[in-house]
Structures are given as C-alpha cells and as structure tokens.
Amino acid sequence: MGSPDEARVRLPQLRLDELLEELQARLDAARGTRDRVHSLLEAVLSVGRELDLEQALHSIVEAAAVLVDAEYAALGVIGPDGKRLSAFHTVGVTEEEIARIGPYPEGHGILGELIRDPEPLCLAKISEHPASYGFPPHHPPMNSFLGVPIRVRDQVFGNLYLTEKRGGGQFDEEDVSVTQTLAVAAGVAIDNARLYAESRLRERWLRANAEITQSLMSGAERTEALGLIAVRAMEITGAALAVVAMPMADTDALTVELALGQEAEALRGLVLSEGDSLIGEAFTSAAAVTSEDVTHDARVPAGPPESAGLGPSVAVPIGTGEGGVRGVVLLVREAGAVPFSDKETEPLQVFAAQAAIAMELAERRRDAEQIAVLQDRDRIARDLHDLAIQRLFATGMTLQSAGRFIEHAEASERVLRAVDDLDETIKIIRSTIFGLRAREGTAGTGLRARVVRAVGEAASVLGFAPSVRMEGLVDTEVPRDIADHAIAVLSEALTNVARHARAARADVALTTDGRELRLMVTDNGMGIPSGGRRSGLRNMEERAEQLGGRLELRSPDDGGTTLEWRVPVARTDGHGTADAT
C-alpha cells in the first residue's frame, strides 16, 4: 500500500482528468454546434439564392436532409383546397423506385396530420402513430419521422417531411429547432421566387400586348391578330389548345374563327350558342369562366372525341361588359394538369381586355381610312356629275344642233353617231357614279347567318339543337344564287332528319376552299328508310346537278346517315385559271 501522501497526489490527478474530459466534451459540443450553425447558414444562403420556384423547392428539400442527417426528405405543397397535396418533391428515392411506388401521396395518414394540424411533429416510429396506415407496395421502410410546416406570409404553403435519421438514431429537439429555422428561411425564399415569377409573368403579358397592339396598328388583318392573341396566350399559360370565338351578326351564336393546338382541326368553324356553352357563358357574362375538366362539363358540346386528353380550361372575354365583348378566348390544358388559378386568370383577363382595346383602335383607324376613301369617291362622283357629264351633254347638244345644217349625208350620219356615243358615255359615267356611291348590303344576309338561322328554326322540330361548323370565306366566295340553293338543301335535309331518322344528334358542316362549296348533314338516326318518298332527295340532287355538282348519301355500319352536297363556286377559263363566278 502506498503512503497517505501518494493517495493525496492521485486524487487531484483523477479530478483533473475528469475536468479535462468534461472540457473536451464541451469543446466538441461547441464545435458541433458551431459546425451545425455554419451548415444552417449555408443552407439558408443556398435556398435564398434560388429565384426559380421549382429549383428553390428542390434546394430546400436537399438542405433539410443534410442538416438533420435524414436519409429521405420530401416537401409537400398543399393544394388550393387546403386539404390535399398538389405537388411532392423528394430526395433519397430514385426515379425507378418512384415509378414502382406509383402516384405521389395526396396527404393522407401521417402526411395529412400536418395538413390538419400545422405544428412540428417528431416520431420515433411512424407505424405507432394513430394516423398511420402503412406504406404502398415497393415503398422503402421508414421509422423515425420529423415534420415541419412551411409558412409563406402566415399562410401554410406546405410541409417538410424527414424520415430515417442515419445511423439508426432519433430526431431530437435540436433537429426540430434547426428544421424550423430552415422552414422560416424557406418561406422567405418561396415568397421571393413567387414574386419573381409573377413579375416575369406580367412582363410576358405586357410584351404580348405590345406585340398585338403594334400588329393591329400597323394594318394587320383581324385573323392575323386573333392568331397572335391565341399563340401568346397558349405560350404564357402552358395550354394545349387555344380557341378564339367571335359573335355572328344578327344571330345569338358565336363561331370558332381560330383554333390552335391539340385537336384544333375539329373545332374550327364550330358554331356555339351564347346561352348553353362554356364560351357562350363567358361572352354573355363578360367574365372569366373556368372548368376543371372539359370532358365532363355539360357546358361543352357533347360527344366530341376531340376533347379526349384535355382537362382544365378557362374562357375569357375579349373586352369588358362596359365597352362590349368582342369575342372569347378559350384555353385548355392537358388532362391531369393544374386548373387555372385566379392569379393566372386575372392577368389573362387584363391581356384580353387590352387586346380588345387594340382591336377597337385599329377598327377606328380603318373606319377613318374608309371614310376618307368614301369622301374621295363622293368628290370624284360630284366632279364627274357636275363637270364631265354637263360638258359632254353640252357638247352632244351642240353637235346635234350643228347636224341640222350639214347637207352631206355621210357627214351628218357621223355627227349623229358621235352624239349617240356621247349619250352612251354619259350612261357609263352615271353608272360609275352610282358604283362609287353604293354601299355594302344589309348586314345579316350572309350565308353564315342564314345557316345559323335555318338550323335554329329546325331545332324546334328536331327536339335538339344540331351542331354547326363552317370553314372558309362562305360569305364572300359563295355567290348569292348558290347560297340560296345551299339554304334550301340544308332546310330539306334537316326536315328529313326530323321526319324519318329518329335521331338524337345531328351535325351540320359547311366549308368552302374558294373552288367548291360542301354541305354535310350527319345524323345518328335509323338510316335511309327503304320504300319511302324520294322527292326531297331528288330536289336536292337536281339542285346539285343544275350547278354542276353532285349529291352523295352514305349510311355507316354503326348507323345514321351522312348527306354530302357539293357544288363548284368558281369556273375555270380556257387557260386553266379559276375565276370566281
């Protein structure tokens, strides 16, 4: 045994070692805290640098996983309804694993717990929580869990979900504190990214408006301007289909003048009612009208296979109720896409209203130019009447008087012939004056309006409203006599459908390419009855033959009847060129 003095020496030595160990532990803890604070600051700076929202969300998830040493991390964005997740950003799961797991979660179970109660949630084992009901097949095993809400301007934007702390440990209070701090920084970063995106979006709308205004004021045709409106609206909103419908004069209908994108071909020329269609509702209410799915919306014409693959839509009036609605823009996204939000619809309405103003200014400028032309024509007509005709008339009277004193028969005959030529010249000039002063015919007598009226009149007899589609310059390229025949054939065809077909649907299509007019009437009825009267069909056939055309009747295997009436609207001269009749 040692001496008492040696024992007294060993005791202070042991206490010193304990103190040194405790000091070292505190130094290590301080160093760890310093490193973690440093990592948190780096994460905050990294997240704050991102201005693209999607990239900012991904950076937040990555930073959270690194800070708390989690194997898996995700950020769920809460949808507009406040009950489900509309987006899900993950870290730690490969693309192959995601494909095997299936669709992203919508916010049930533990994930929904944070939606219902947006407060930090820390669990040692997920399966032990009452709200947990398991994972889908092929989902990686997860035990420890940490969830923290992300708020943007006091509104819950989404939640951070962290699982499986590396090394088999548990998330502690420090992890919760660090994640909450990151969530605050994430809220600021998300808000900045949103503001940046909104400013860029406004800038794009302003550029589009300037482009359309410049195009219209430089003399572009209306069709070109409408096309530019549709293209820019599609690009900015990410729509798969854009439709522009304009009202038809003297009718309660709108016609699709332009359609771009997915299945646009089947929509061009379609005539829609103002009352019972998505576009018509936007036109009559002078307000934006949205639909979450056009394939299941009663306001969209029934039976269009062309709507397959399409989903959310918005119809926006071109113009306002005060200044008058000039038309409607319909934008449709692909099926499964995000519906149009108020933040998207508002700038779209402003864009459409400003486009209407630009169209109004362009029309006023063209009206002013037209007035100037008409005034010039009136001046020319007055000059011809007051100067040319009077002088020619006076000259003719002088020659006629002088002819009485000419004894030579041949000379007298020549003078009288000159007088007759002057009279004929006066008639030609008067005809020219009449042409200069003539105005366009009464509105509403065009073939388009007549077709809409004929279909509307037949609707009461049919018991339903047939769909109508018109393409081409049917008002300008189809002569009046051919238009009269076409209306007669259309009325007879719809009458036959009402009397004999027992149909529940009928489609009318009138198209022209400048050379030929084609009228098609299709129904889903019982087909052409055998042994029935054929006088109506003979009349339609005779009208076609009289104009150099033909009539065809087809009965598809799946039932119904298709009547096709085709006649030329242009003639070909001996040199092979086409002249409008």
Would you give an account of this structure?
It is elongated, with a radius of gyration of 40 Å. It has 581 residues and is α+β, with helices and mostly antiparallel strands. It is built from 13 helices and 18 strands. It has 4 domains: 40-196, 2-Layer Sandwich (Beta-Lactamase), CATH 3.30.450.40; 219-340, GAF domain (Beta-Lactamase), CATH 3.30.450; 366-437; 447-580, Heat Shock Protein 90 (2-Layer Sandwich). The strands form 3 sheets. It has an 11-stranded mixed sheet, with helices on both faces. A 5-stranded antiparallel sheet has the order 2-1-5-4-3, sandwiched between helices. A hairpin with a 2-residue loop joins strand 4 (145-152) and strand 5. Helix 5 (173-217) packs parallel to helix 8.
Largest sheet: 11 strands, mixed
What class, by secondary structure content?
alpha+beta
Which architecture of the largest domain per CATH?
A: 2-Layer Sandwich
Beta-strand content bin:
15-25%
> How many distinct domains?
4
Overall body shape: elongated
Q: Classify the helix fraction into a percent range.
A: 40-55%
CATH superfamily of the largest domain: GAF domain
Question: Distance N terminus to C terminus?
Answer: 134 Å
* CATH topology value of the largest domain: Beta-Lactamase
CATH class placement of the largest domain: Alpha Beta
Uncertain parts: 26-34, 302-306, 439-443, 571-581
Radius of gyration: 40 Å
Topology, number of strands: 18
**Number of helices, where a helix is a run of at least 4 consecutive DSSP H or I residues:** 13
Q: For the largest beta sheet, what order do the strands appear in spatially?
A: 9-10-11-6-7-8-12-13-14-16-15
* Overall average pLDDT: 77
